[in-house]
């Protein structure tokens, strides 16, 4: 019974919608807006200290719950309803504890709540969608805890604050270990940003039917010149080999021209199929095509994201051993718990992508497990604007082996950054392709 243990006191939630500046295409779907669920939580420690925390996350049903059976609006409404129900249920929770313990306990009721809310729909809410819907609540609890103590929440993960070691949440391998072993006490001073090249995004002026004219860059070459980008994430189709190979080659041509003007000799790519590849053979053929068509682009590939179906156990034939020998291959949509992380290793995946939208506690725990097992680690975005981007960036800045930040709301949803960009200019204004993550060092989640 630590004096720093907290109890939840007052909780509230609300939604806000932002229209996209331009459409985004990924995984065969086009998205034109973002609906965020915002949560505020007041907590009180055993010794009477209080703090208020904030959590925010896009519900992004198109990514978390793509369905052939129910409509996008119905999926979105159900996810929002679950997020709001989770807040109400948390308001009735009266136990003291560390945020890890409280969020772990609260999460046990989320599947049954989701089942009740979707009983009239044609399919149940998938676990990934449940994680996204309840992630703002988790973030707010961790944020409030740090603010009640007046310290950064990433510095409250050792035995002087946490009542149980990691074996309580993971496996016996972690006995005697705490999350302070797998996180940094200070954020990285700066980190490069991964810029998204969506499937609809114009590479050159020839790809622009007309200009938006809002003052922001509109082609890939313009973005590279304006922000000094050296990390590009390329969205691919996964079912059109010729298009995918040519898309990477075309991006590389444009990038090479822009980087030559900047005098930049080195840059990197991540390649994201959004689980659209039929099998590993497609991935291998694609990589062979890149190597032949654009060998310099091949050398610039940093890692490959989720090439095949997210349901790993339904498709055990999708093994990645051969591809992972060539480049790191990470799961994204597939990562929903420790079992999925362990199973992906059996299937040959060499890395995992963490996301703040899957829950702050979950991201920290999966980050610890991935480091324990020597896996490649990255933190990915959900087109997170404002507070949700800073939350995601704080994970990148505090997990030692993560090399870059992904953030594309500045491209697609800049309206959601208003207010936050003025408060944290180093996190929204790029200099030589990097962000000043040293700013994420305040109480709570750091911002």
Structure description:
With 447 residues, this protein is α/β, with parallel strands linked by helices. It folds into two domains: 6-172, Enolase-like, domain 1 (2-Layer Sandwich); 191-439, TIM Barrel. It contains 15 helices and twelve strands. It has helices at 61-64, 72-91, 99-107, 110-117, 127-149, 220-227, 241-262, 280-293, 295-300, 321-324, 338-346, 360-372, 386-398, 409-412, 420-423; strands spanning 6-26, 29-45, 50-58, 191-197, 231-235, 268-272, 301-305, 329-331, 351-354, 376-379, 405-406, 434-435. Strands 4, 5, 6, 7, 8, 9, 10, 11 and 12 form a nine-stranded mixed β-sheet that branches. The chain has a three-stranded antiparallel β-sheet with strand order 1-2-3. Helix 2 (72-91) packs across helix 4 (110-117), helix 2 packs parallel to helix 5 and helix 6 (220-227) packs parallel to helix 7 (241-262). The model has no long low-confidence stretch (mean pLDDT 97).
Could you give me the name of the CATH homologous superfamily of the largest domain? Answer: Enolase-like C-terminal domain
Total number of β-strand segments? 12
Helix-strand category: alpha/beta
Uncertain parts: none
Number of helices: 15
How far is the first residue's CA from the last residue's CA?
28 Å
Mean pLDDT: 97
């Amino acid at each position: 019974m630590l004096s720093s243990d907290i109890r939840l006191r007052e909780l509230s939630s609300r939604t806000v919608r932002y229209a996209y500046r331009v459409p985004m295409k990924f995984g065969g779907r086009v998205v034109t807006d973002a609906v965020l669920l915002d949560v505020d939580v007041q907590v009180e420690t055993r010794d009477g200290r209080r703090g208020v925390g904030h959590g925010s996350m896009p519900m992004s049903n198109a990514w978390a719950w793509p369905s052939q059976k129910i409509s996008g609006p119905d999926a979105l409404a159900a996810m929002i309803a679950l997020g709001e129900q989770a807040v109400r249920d948390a308001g009735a929770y009266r136990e003291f504890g560390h945020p890890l313990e409280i969020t772990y306990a609260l999460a046990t009721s989320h599947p049954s709540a989701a089942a009740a809310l979707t009983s009239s729909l044609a399919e149940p809410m998938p676990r990934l969608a449940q994680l996204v819907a309840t992630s703002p609540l988790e973030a707010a609890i961790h944020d409030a805890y740090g603010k009640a103590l007046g310290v950064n929440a990433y510095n409250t993960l050792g035995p002087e604050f946490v009542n149980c070691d990691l074996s309580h949440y993971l496996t016996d391998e972690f006995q005697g270990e705490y999350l302070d072993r797998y996180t940094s006490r200070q954020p990285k001073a700066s980190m490069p940003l991964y810029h998204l090249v969506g499937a609809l995004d114009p590479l050159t002026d020839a790809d622009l039917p007309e200009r938006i004219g809002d003052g922001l860059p509109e082609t890939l070459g313009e973005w590279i010149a304006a922000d000094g980008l050296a990390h590009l994430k390329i969205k691919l189709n996964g079912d059109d080999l010729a298009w995918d190979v040519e898309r990477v080659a075309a991006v590389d041509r444009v990038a090479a021209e822009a980087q030559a003007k900047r005098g930049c000799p080195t840059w990197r790519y991540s390649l994201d199929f959004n689980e659209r590849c039929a099998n590993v053979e497609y991935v291998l053929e694609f990589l062979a095509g890149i190597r032949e068509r654009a060998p310099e682009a091949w050398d610039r590939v940093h890692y490959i994201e989720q090439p095949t179906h997210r349901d790993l156990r339904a498709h055990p034939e999708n093994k990645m051993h051969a591809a992972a020998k060539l480049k790191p291959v990470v799961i994204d949509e597939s990562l929903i718990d420790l079992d999925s992380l362990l199973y992906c290793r059996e299937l040959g995946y060499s890395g995992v992508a963490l996301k703040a939208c899957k829950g702050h506690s979950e991201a920290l725990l999966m980050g610890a497990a991935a480091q324990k097992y020597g896996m490649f680690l990255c933190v990915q975005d959900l087109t997170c604007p404002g507070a949700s981007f800073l939350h995601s960036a704080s994970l990148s800045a505090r997990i030692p082996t993560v090399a870059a930040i992904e953030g594309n709301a500045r491209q697609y949803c800049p309206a959601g950054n208003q207010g936050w960009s003025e408060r944290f200019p180093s996190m929204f204004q790029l200099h030589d392709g990097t962000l000043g993550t040293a700013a994420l060092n305040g109480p709570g989640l750091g911002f």
